[in-house]
Each structure stands twice: as C-alpha cells, then as structure tokens.
Design a protein that fits this description.
The chain is an alpha/beta fold and 165 residues long. The protein has 2 helices and 15 strands. A hairpin with a 4-residue loop joins strand 14 and strand 15.
C-alpha cells in the first residue's frame, strides 16, 4: 500500500512546478518570501553593479517578509522550484539545507544543519529534521516528528524519534 495521497501521484520529484510559487494576491507572505529569495539569487548569479544594487532591494524585501512570517530562510539556501509554504510561520531552514523540487513545508518546521530533502517531500507542522541527513523522494513527514536519520523514498514517517509507519 502506497503512503502517497491519490491527489499527489502526479506531482513530480524531479521537475519543478513553478506555478506552485506564483504570487496569488497582495497578501501572500509565503510566496513573496520565496520570490525575494529567488530574485536575490538570480541577481547575484548575474553579477555586475546594477544587479548588485537591485539585489540589495531584494535583501530588504526578504527581511520584511521574514519578519512578517517570523521565518528564517537564508538568502543563499538551495531550494528546488515549486516549494509550497502552506502556512509560512516560524519556518527555520539552515543555510546548508537543500530542498528538492515540489516540496511542501508547514508552519513551525525546522531543518537544522545539512538536511537534504528529495523531491515532493511534505513536512508536517512542527516537524524537526536534525542533520546531517537525507530524505528520499515522495516522503510524508508527520506533524511534530523528530527526524534524526536518513529516510528512504516513498514512505511516511511519524513520531519521536521518527519511524516508518
């Protein structure tokens, strides 16, 4: 029996669905926080004086949305496309963490240290992932789970410490 919800079977673990990050309204803090990170990274990659000046604007924008969401997602964090921050409050992502494409992170989640999320990983509210560790593709991590070891693909984990259920 698969642990993947039937509505999620077509979500790719390798190809980013950028529509998941499109700003939907004026007040869309999670997506606007991601937009600030994406624009900053894009400008830094371009280089040059104008890009450097514009990047400073996105640093300020990132600071504003970080304050509003009470989240800490470093500007240089490697984030695959299609990240969904459903309730973007209190999310802490270490600068060494890597987030794969089409992941979903709920509120009060902490990715501490060198945590690598595969593609299409759903992290439940309050979960703590303490690295270094790697999470496979198509994984569901239950609310308030504490993950301290690697997780294989296509499983659901829950509990303290997290175990495959």
């Amino acid at each position: 029996m698969s642990s993947i919800h039937p509505d999620d079977v077509n979500v790719s673990a390798s190809t980013a669905d950028w529509s998941r990050e499109t700003v939907q309204s004026f007040w869309d803090p999670g997506r606007k926080l991601l937009r600030a990170i994406r624009r900053y990274q894009s400008l830094k990659a371009k280089g040059g004086v104008l890009a450097s000046l514009l990047a400073k604007y996105w640093v300020l924008n990132h600071g504003f949305w970080s304050l509003i969401t009470q989240s800490e997602i470093h500007l240089t964090t490697q984030i695959g496309g299609g990240l969904r921050l459903t309730h973007p409050t209190g999310i802490i992502i270490h600068p060494e963490a890597k987030v794969g494409p089409n992941c979903m992170i709920f509120h009060q989640v902490t990715l501490a240290g060198a945590v690598t999320l595969g593609g299409h990983v759903d992290v439940g509210a309050g979960a703590k992932l303490i690295g270094p560790l790697t999470v496979g593709d198509h994984v569901v991590i239950g609310a308030n789970a504490v993950v301290t070891k690697d997780i294989p693909s296509n499983v659901t984990v829950a509990g303290i410490p997290a175990k495959i259920i």
